[in-house]
């Protein structure tokens, strides 16, 4: 279809004209041809159609932006290839913001297979603070345990995740994890992590200030969220599943503990001191 239609469009022929005069060869309607052109399936584009509004063609940059150069090998296509070749658990990473004037934000790490989401406090919404958090986690867990629990992390293109080397490289030499990025404006590619933020928002509603949040507060939020039973886990909580999957020292070193089902509180009252 492309070999017949595109050269004729570029000659100024209308889709009606092309469809009418090539019925046998094309065997499709004018409307179908238009859909193909609109969808970018042909060499000739919308701009080439007769009576289309002529606009100056955008210049195509031959050299990608620096931030994209840095992400070569860490793109979503690289992520898909990597998980097809390696059987590793996937952790999704994101940030939750409070009031605009707050410097503090929350960083979340979501274990897709376990439905468990860890929440940590960042002093500032910066790549430096994210790296410091990773360094502190590795110090607590050790390089081997960190790598076992966080072998691969998928995140978005936020500026706070821009220090790829700083996040991937271990304090003790070598790599501690692999960082991959979703496609731009495709937050659905890490939708499980973002969807689980709804539980955080039941305790810390949008617009709530994170200014007075302590490390103990954030740990409390983490423990209550992960002790909440899910229909998707057949009536189990994320912690119940995770305890049978991850090493016990992971929970001990991060002070993660199960909250009894009757005490689970997913309201702002949880943090009322």
Task: Map the helices and strands.
Blueprint: H1 2-9, H2 15-21, H3 23-26, H4 30-38, H5 66-70, H6 76-85, E1 91-97, E2 105-111, E3 116-122, H7 127-141, H8 143-149, E4 152-155, H9 164-168, E5 178-181, H10 191-203, H11 215-226, H12 238-243, H13 248-253
Parallel strand pairs: 1-4, 4-5
Antiparallel strand pairs: 1-2, 2-3
Written account of the structure:
There is one protein chain. The chain is of the alpha/beta class. It has 13 helices and 5 strands. It has a 5-stranded mixed β-sheet with strand order 3-2-1-4-5, with helices on both faces. Helix 2 (about 15-20) packs across helix 4 and helix 7 (about 125-140) crosses helix 8. The termini are far apart. About 20% of the residues are buried.
Provide a concise account of the structure shown.
By secondary structure, this protein is α/β, with parallel strands linked by helices. The protein has helices at 2-9, 15-21, 23-26, 30-38, 66-70, 76-85, 127-141, 143-149, 164-168, 191-203, 215-226, 238-243, 248-253; strands at residues 91-97, 105-111, 116-122, 152-155, 178-181.
């Amino acid at each position: 279809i492309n070999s017949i239609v595109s050269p004729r469009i570029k000659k100024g022929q209308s889709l009606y004209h092309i469809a009418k005069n090539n019925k046998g060869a094309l065997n499709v309607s004018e409307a179908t041809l238009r859909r193909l052109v609109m969808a970018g399936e042909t060499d000739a584009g919308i701009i080439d159609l007769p009576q289309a509004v002529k606009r100056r063609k955008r210049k195509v940059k031959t050299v990608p932006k620096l931030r994209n150069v840095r992400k070569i090998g860490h793109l979503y296509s690289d992520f898909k290839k990597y998980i097809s070749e390696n059987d590793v658990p996937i952790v999704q990473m994101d940030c939750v913001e409070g009031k605009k004037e707050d410097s503090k934000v929350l960083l979340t790490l979501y274990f897709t297979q376990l439905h468990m989401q860890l929440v940590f406090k960042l002093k500032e919404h910066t790549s430096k603070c994210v790296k410091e958090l990773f360094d502190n986690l590795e110090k607590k867990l050790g390089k081997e345990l960190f790598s076992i629990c966080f072998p691969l992390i998928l995140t978005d293109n936020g500026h706070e995740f821009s220090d790829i080397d700083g996040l991937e490289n271990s304090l003790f030499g070598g790599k501690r994890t692999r960082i991959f990025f979703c496609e731009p404006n495709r937050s659905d590619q890490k939708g499980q992590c973002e969807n689980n933020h709804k539980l955080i928002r039941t305790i810390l509603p949008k617009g709530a200030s994170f200014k007075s949040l302590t490390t103990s507060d954030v740990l409390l939020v983490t423990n209550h969220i992960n002790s909440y039973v899910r229909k998707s886990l057949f009536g189990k909580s994320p912690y119940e599943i995770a305890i049978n999957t991850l090493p016990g020292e992971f929970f001990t070193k991060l002070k993660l503990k199960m909250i009894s089902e009757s005490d689970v509180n997913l309201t702002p009252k949880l943090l009322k001191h």
